[in-house]
Amino acid sequence: MSSENYRSASKSHDPGWNDPPKVTSTSGVAGTVLPKPLLNKRVPFPLQKPPTNPSSPTELAASPGKVPPSSTPTPLPLIPKSIPTGSDGTPVVNIPEAPTELPTQDELLVQIRTVFDEFAQQLEETRRADVQKRVNLIYEQWTERMLPAGLEKHIYDFSTALKEKDDIRANVVHRSIVCDYGSKCALWGPALRQLIFALQKCNEQEVQES
């Protein structure tokens, strides 16, 4: 066989499974063998569970039975007030007092008439009849319910001041009557002023006698 036929035969020949590997002509790395990666390396199973933070969100979410702490403070229990007790130690129960009944219109008029007539009789005889005539108009208007409620209260307070012999308070109430109800008391307002004069004269006599 000629050399040309040998080359052509070697080029067309396929290597078999038991043919030795071809040696490449690379310089410097011919003897270096790279290590193969370990594909079947086993990871050791942990023998002890690492400690976990119970307050972490992950731990709270994993434990359905645990309730996360609330940011709202717990309200303090109410302290009952001390109950007053008597000398024997028994609790004292405060019973509300029954409201006092206000006097009726007729009862108020009785006091007004009694006081006004009393001080009218202490005036001089020349003034007594005119004053008595004017205060009688108050009695008539009161009975016929012709006076406003506020004016009725002022008249009753005025009679109380005369009864208690408080001429300063009587002057204050008389001024309120004249200023607030001038048109209603035009006929008998001056008569109340005469009753104040009678009260002042009575007080002066008591001071002199004392």
Give the key terms:
210 residues; mainly alpha; RNA Binding Protein, Prp18, Chain A; 7 helices; 48% helix; rod-shaped
Main beta sheet: none
The rounded Rg comes to: 60 Å
From the spread of the alpha carbons, the general shape counts as rod-shaped
Low-confidence parts: none
What is CATH's topology name of the domain at 105-209?
Answer: RNA Binding Protein, Prp18, Chain A
CATH class of the domain at 105-209: Mainly Alpha
Give the rounded overall mean pLDDT: 77
Structural class: mainly alpha
Q: How many helices does DSSP assign?
A: 7
Terminal-residue CA separation: 179 Å
The percent of residues in helical segments reads 40-55%
Secondary structure: number of strands: 0
Beta-strand content bin: under 5%
GO molecular function: transcription coactivator activity
Organism: Anopheles farauti
GO biological process, one term: regulation of transcription by RNA polymerase II
InterPro entries: SRA1/Sec31 (IPR009917), Steroid_recept_RNA_1 (IPR040243)
Notes on the protein architecture:
- The chain has 210 residues and is mainly alpha-helical.
- It has a domain at 105-209: Up-down Bundle (RNA Binding Protein, Prp18, Chain A), CATH 1.20.940.10.
- The chain is 48% helix and 0% strand.
- The protein contains seven helices and no strands.
- Helix 3 (105-120) crosses helix 5 and helix 5 (149-163) runs antiparallel to helix 6.
- The longest helix has 21 residues, at 189-209.
- The radius of gyration is 60 Å and the shape is rod-shaped.
- It starts with a helix and ends with a helix.
- This is SRA1/Sec31 domain-containing protein.
- One of its GO terms (biological process) is regulation of transcription by RNA polymerase II.
- GO terms for molecular function: transcription coactivator activity.
- Residues 1-78 are annotated as: Disordered.
- Residues 68-207 form the SRA1/Sec31 domain.
